[in-house]
Amino acid sequence: MSEEFPPLIGKYKVTGIIAKGGMGVVYKAIHPSLKRYGVIKKMTARNKSGNAERFKKEAQILLDLQSPYIVHLFDYFTEAGYRYMVEELVDGIALDKLIKKQTSLPSPIAMLFMQDACYALKYAHSKEIVHRDIKPGNILISKKGEIKLADFGIASDSAGDNVPETGVALGTPAYMPPEQ
Q: Which end of the chain is more exposed for a tag (fewer CB within 10 A), N or C?
């Protein structure tokens, strides 16, 4: 039972669906002339200006973050009323899936994963960006062993225009600090 997906999004040839969530769909796609795979995030929550602005803000934040420890942004565009972000494809596994599969990791490997995730956070913080949703599902491990931090959808920056309203919590409850 395979799911339907559009053959093209913008200039990119869609090859499959990676994930679906409350805010959108994530596709695997290939650039037609460069023959490079990428991830296309489609925001499906149409006509909700807060969500649209947050999606655009994520693209702007990723554009400013040029680190080997953070997923790179390649493109951002709007088509037929939908917003899209094209990001680097990290061919591998998310840390949460690896933990479910392995149940435990050797200490030196776990420490390397944590070290590289901390390098990503240190770099983001040096640019005055706070991720706000650190969890194993947002730490990606490539088949080459590279660690990349992903999903800056609720990140805040020094501009401060991404601060939630009083009483509104953003993040994944199991990974949020108790004071939040």
A: N
